[in-house]
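Why does this matter for the project? Reviewers at the last site visit asked to see concrete outputs rather than summary tables. In response, this paragraph embeds two records directly. Each consists of the residue sequence and, immediately after it, the corresponding structure tokens. Nothing has been edited or filtered.
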Amino acid sequence: MSSSPDRLVYMANQIGKFFQSQGRDRAVQGISEHIWKFWDPRMRKQIFAHLDAGGTGLDPDVRDALQKLKQQA
């Protein structure tokens, strides 16, 4: 599956919106766990590349979750 960065950013931000009500720390943890469990490795690779290129359009909690996930990967 090849998704454009825009589509992946949209999907990641939607996940972020779902977890937003749980407070920042729990949201960041929930976002990173969700992306690790449910995203194809190729999708994670693409969103990490987008993050490395500046992460345009990513919500702050999503950006933090991806940074955390990238460090663990």
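We now turn to the second protein, recorded in exactly the same manner.
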Amino acid sequence: MKSLTAIALLTTLCVGFTAHVDAKNRENRPPRPDFSTIDVDGNGIIDLSEFSAQELPPGVDDIEEVFNQIDTNQNGEISEEEFTSHKPPHRQR
């Protein structure tokens, strides 16, 4: 019976620790920029030069590749709809 109690306690500690680490990782993520802060000239679209002025998130090497992923119709501009509907890929841990 003691071993079952020890296993239950260890499991509870592991689950709690995992939840704590996950919450900590979410806190360390930079906030997602708002469309209007990137659209510096206020014309309702984001071009590559405006997008390139943003700080790259950790692990991203090619800003143009990210721009092209968000620019789903490949017209060289990111609309607000394209920007808000884009879901960044999950980072590998």
